[in-house]
Write a structure and sequence with these properties.
This protein is mainly beta and 486 residues long. It has five helices and 29 strands. It has a six-stranded mixed sheet with strand order 4-8-7-10-6-13. Strands 15-14-29 form a three-stranded antiparallel sheet. A three-stranded antiparallel sheet has the order 16-17-18, with no helix packed on it. Strand 23 and strand 24 form a beta hairpin. The N terminus is likely disordered.
Length: 486
């Protein structure tokens, strides 16, 4: 730990997605579930889609607390710690590394750092508030208090104030330190994606509770009363100390980490996914890295190429999506769950779209004749199955209440069922040359977008505009899936 000098100032300052196993054609718990056969057919990958979401976004947030491995679970010897604890409202997050090249056993590594800080440096406890290993597991660091059975070990007192650690001399009060287990100084070993994801999850949870901006450089009042300094709210140790920590391989990733935290703090309509004809998802949102932070996988990256796709729908959390094939087979990604399919069933017409219920516990599929198939808690509100259509149905969207849905035909005609209001269609609108490919609803249910095969979006009701539209290139866009986080 020679380059990462952590002074004991706590008293002075105030006082995991694994690869799922394939089970009978369904990937359990998983990034991918394929049910029902589908004909293989070559499709070229859709060209990159470029767009910026410009509509209003609600920014109050409540991202979930990630799983934290307790001190008891990693084997902390509680006889080593001493002294009382002090707490302060959190204002800053610091990223560190433990500066040890080999970490074969993360729990043993945490015990070694703990013993070094207490016995080697004479500190009252381990200096870090949390540790993160290469697999993305988060370890409880400095002891805060005795927790009730089943209560998460957050490193806070009952008022939500963070325990003051010893990880950044002079800046421990009102901050928490996260240590990456390993050495990331000049060895070309960047932290794993799982480790960076875990850090972002933890920081986002803390920042949401304390109303902190991931991209801001808010003033910090020095605990000794000597003045105020300004530095990033998510900082590397070197930003405030004479150290190389968190290492030359991690420090350049700090801007990306701030983006990832900011993405997790967004709520409401935060972006969208465009489904390409090859089954690929192109994801866009309000930060440059949103496409990677909101990534849930897709067919080509799951090793399934050449399968035709009919449509897609997003989960209620915004962290998953389903893709349906023309045969009614379902592919699920992220936290999307399988509720049934038409795979293996003879259909009169191919499936061309789907929509999910408000709970995320069901979905509808629609065929080109407007026939509706319901699964899970999806209810039937009518169809065009017995109506002679001028053009076939190409997509559907559900009302956010779950008590209705829209369908859109190839010529842009919109059909509304249940509580879903009719708000217009793109027929005759400037810029709409057809054919339409899908329809997607806004979170309020008082607006929708119609996507055409050229990738252009046509907005109705309270649907916000998309800056510059979508340029899909030579390959058609198949569906548009709004990403809405509750």
């Amino acid at each position: 730990m020679g380059r990462d000098e952590h002074d004991e100032t706590g008293r002075r300052d105030a006082g995991l997605l694994g690869r799922r196993s394939l089970l009978g054609g369904v990937v359990a718990g998983g990034a991918l579930a394929l049910v029902g056969p589908g004909p293989l057919r070559p499709f070229a990958r859709a060209s990159t889609v470029n767009a910026v979401l410009t509509g209003p976004v609600e920014t109050t947030s409540a991202p979930p607390l990630p799983r934290i491995i307790t001190r008891a679970e990693w084997g902390a010897d509680e006889s080593l710690r001493s002294g009382s604890r002090s707490f302060a409202t959190l204002r800053k997050a610091f990223v560190h590394h433990t500066d040890i090249k080999t970490v074969p056993d993360p729990a043993a590594h945490m015990r070694a750092v703990y013993r070094f800080h207490t016995e080697g440096r004479g500190w009252s406890d381990i200096g870090y508030n949390f540790g993160v290993d290469a697999a993305g597991r988060i370890y409880e660091g400095r002891w805060a208090r005795a927790y009730a059975t089943g209560e998460p070990h957050t490193g806070e007192d009952t008022a939500g104030r963070g325990v003051i650690g010893a990880h950044a001399a002079g800046f421990n009060t009102g901050s928490f330190g996260i240590a990456l287990l390993g050495d990331f100084q000049g060895e070309g070993r960047s932290p794993t994606a799982d480790a960076r994801r875990a850090m972002a999850d933890l920081i986002a949870w803390k920042f949401a509770r304390n109303d902190l901006d991931a991209h801001a450089d808010d003033p910090y009042e020095l605990p000794d009363g000597s003045g105020t300094v300004t530095f990033p709210n998510i900082a590397g140790h070197r930003d405030v100390g004479q150290t190389s920590c968190p290492g030359s391989d991690m420090y350049p990733l700090m801007p990306q980490l701030r983006d990832h935290v900011a993405d997790r703090l967004l709520r409401g309509l935060v972006g969208y996914r465009v489904l390409g004809s090859d089954g690929s998802f192109s994801t866009f949102g309000r930060t440059p890295t949103f496409g990677s932070t909101a990534d849930i996988g897709d067919l080509p990256r799951s090793g399934i190429d050449g399968r035709p796709v009919g449509g897609a729908a997003g989960t209620a959390s915004g962290f998953g999506a389903w893709v349906v094939g023309p045969d009614g087979g379902i592919y699920s990604f992220g936290d999307a769950r399988f509720f049934g399919s038409m795979g293996g069933t003879r259909l009169n017409k191919p499936i061309v779209g789907m929509a999910t219920t408000v709970t995320g516990n069901g979905y509808w599929m629609v065929a080109t004749d407007g026939g509706i198939f319901s699964f899970g808690d999806a209810r039937f509100f009518g169809s065009t199955g017995n109506i002679v259509l001028f053009q076939p149905i190409v997509g559907m969207a559900a009302a956010p209440s779950g008590n209705g849905y829209w369908m859109v035909a190839r010529d842009g005609g919109v059909f509304a069922f249940g509580v879903a209001p009719f708000l217009g269609n793109p027929i005759g609108r400037p810029g709409f040359t057809g054919p339409a490919r899908s329809i997607a609803a806004t979170p309020s249910g008082q607006g929708y977008w119609v996507l055409d095969s050229a990738g252009r979006v046509h907005a109705f009701g309270d649907a916000p505009g998309f800056g510059g539209g979508i340029v899909a290139g030579a390959r058609p866009a198949v569906d548009l899936v709004p990403i809405v986080r509750p």
